[in-house]
Design brief:
By secondary structure, the chain is an alpha/beta fold. The chain has seven helices and eight strands, in the order H-H-E-E-E-H-E-H-E-E-H-E-E-H-H. It is globular, with a radius of gyration of 22 Å.
Length: 244
């Protein structure tokens, strides 16, 4: 019995559509680290617009940690960052912010599957517009005895370590430190940005002593001044290193 052959003609238009669909499905199947790599490749060549970018943790529908009497992390981090911005600008630095009001930055990234992922990717993107970066947060813990500040930096990054230590030395003058050393991490997205970025946890909302401190505007000003001193001290060193 002779074989029968069926010939199907596929136009270039349908072939292109099929190829694009296959690529889209493949992209969606990739892990989030791939999307982060794609975003990084797209923005690392951008010339820095600011000397430093400050990131006030959380915002908008994301309150962050919550302390007694509905004290929200997002409100305190924003207040500290705005105070810090004013100090640094008065010192001559050009300062960028990931947010300057009670909002998030999900609109800047569409790769994440959740609002939280999109917000992190948006902050990550903005941090690339600075030569330095700092992300300010406040901790919470089940153990209410946990208190004090923590300084995180990207593991195995020499410049980031120098930056973190300089800020740590100033911060411990005004706040109890939860650790006696700067803490290396490799799984925090904001630390993966191209410019040196450190993350500061300025205290614990779940600790009564820290909560009382953080709800005091004068203490928040002292935190901002300590962070600013650390940034400015390191900025001088960083500028020298970039010109050598």
């Amino acid at each position: 019995m002779p074989r029968k052959f069926i010939y199907v003609t596929i136009t270039k238009r349908y072939l292109l559509a099929f190829t694009l669909l296959a690529l889209a499905l493949f992209g969606l199947s990739l892990p989030n680290t791939y999307h982060l790599a794609v975003m990084t490749a797209a923005i690392v060549t951008t010339t820095a617009e600011y000397d430093i970018v400050l990131d006030a943790g959380h915002g908008g529908v994301d309150s962050g940690g919550v302390g007694a009497d509905a004290v929200y992390e997002k409100d305190i981090t924003l207040d500290i960052v705005l105070r810090l911005r004013d100090i640094l600008e008065n010192a001559g630095l050009k300062v960028g912010l990931t947010r300057d009001s009670d909002t998030d930055v999900t609109h800047l990234a569409d790769q994440g599957k959740t609002r939280h992922q999109r917000d992190l990717l948006g902050r990550y993107k903005i941090l690339h517009s600075g030569k330095l970066g700092m992300s300010v947060h406040i901790n919470t813990a089940k153990d209410t005895e946990q208190k004090g500040a923590i300084v995180f930096y990207m593991r195995n990054a020499y410049i980031d370590r120098q930056y973190a230590q300089t800020v740590f030395d100033e911060l411990e003058r005004v706040q109890t430190m939860n650790h006696t050393f700067i803490v290396p991490r490799s799984n925090l997205m904001v630390l993966k940005a191209k410019p040196p970025v450190i993350m500061i946890e300025v205290g614990f909302l779940t600790n009564e002593t820290d909560l009382q401190k953080l709800t005091d505007p004068q203490f928040r000003q002292s935190i901002a001044e300590a962070l600013a001193t650390g940034i400015l001290k390191y900025w001088s060193l960083y500028q020298l290193e970039q010109t050598e």
